[in-house]
Amino acid sequence: METIYKMSLPLREIREVDDEAKTILESTKKQLGILPNMYAYMANSTGLLSTYKHGYDHFRKNSGFTKTEQEVVFLTISYENECMYCVAAHSFVADMMSKVPLDVTDAIRNGEIIKDHKLRVLSEFTAIMVNKRGKPEQEDVERFLEAGYTEKQVLEIILAISVKTISNYTNHVFHTPVDLMMQSREWLGYSVARKVVRFFGGDKR
User: Which domain holds residue 146?
Assistant: First the structure.
């Protein structure tokens, strides 16, 4: 029987970490009102925490994607990497902060087709980049560009994949519990849903 490894390192308190990590944790807590479990686990490695936060902030500020598009990218990556924590977190952010239409968020969570054409192309291209390990076909990129995106934004998706993979993998090895404020968007039954979709051939990603 397969057993998934779980880290034994603890959630770190702000008072326990070095100055660099402390600055990140304090600013995160000030911004969100809580210190998310994911950040407290990441603080076991200042390099990991700093790399994630720096890249995440750059994507948010400089990617050229709208807030809705940013959540589509982050949610898609987290879905493809099967990160229960990040799907819940970005669903919550999409609902409460980025104001993403509910049907868009739920389509990604459920492995369904997004009705909005441009957002559908964005999600599908992001999934292609994840699953093809950054080796899209010519036609994949052409479809992305034809939807109104740019080659620079191909690179921004690579950045998003890098930072989200850091958080997704961290949550995998720690089995990070979803924070209370995000539990209304907990991603339940995801593994069953994905298996059903793949069995019937509907998941092209």
Answer: 14-194
Least confident of 100-104, 140-144, 153-157: 100-104
Answer yes or no: pTM beyond 0.85. yes
Q: How many domains does the chain have?
A: 1
In a domain, 2, yes or no: no
Q: What is the pLDDT of residues 6-40, one digit of tens each?
A: 999 999 999 999 999 999 999 999 988 999 999 99
Q: What is the CATH number of the domain that holds 146?
A: 1.20.1290.10
154 within some domain: yes
DSSP string, the chain: --------PPPPPGGGS-HHHHHHHHHHHHHHSS--HHHHHHTTSHHHHHHHHHHHHHHHHHS---HHHHHHHHHHHHHHTT-HHHHHHHHHHHHHTS---HHHHHHHHTT---SSHHHHHHHHHHHHHHHTTT---HHHHHHHHHTT--HHHHHHHHHHHHHHHHHHHHHHHHTPPPPGGGGGG---SHHHHHHHHHHTT----
Q: Is residue 6 part of a domain?
A: no
